[in-house]
Request: fold
Amino acid sequence: MLEYNVGNDHRRARRVKDARAAFARAVTAFPDFSEAHASLGAMQQLLGQLDQAAQSYRVALAKNPHLPGLDDNLALLAAERSEVAAPR
Reply:
């Protein structure tokens, strides 16, 4: 849980790469912790790692299909991925 809290501290400080690393450590230590998977996905998405973000969100969804905010994150990711697939 410490790494998850560290990740949230980094996220609040806008240290996205550090937050991603902390959330990655949290999901390694607690593979059933859906919030950590979703948070990792959010950081991956912010860093443009869209395929990795989709995978993290899928794991979070499998662990907890009722996780608040996950549907919104998935919708934003789908929109972002479609924009990347169809450049202007």
Observations:
- Residues 45 and 53 are 5 Å apart (CA to CA).
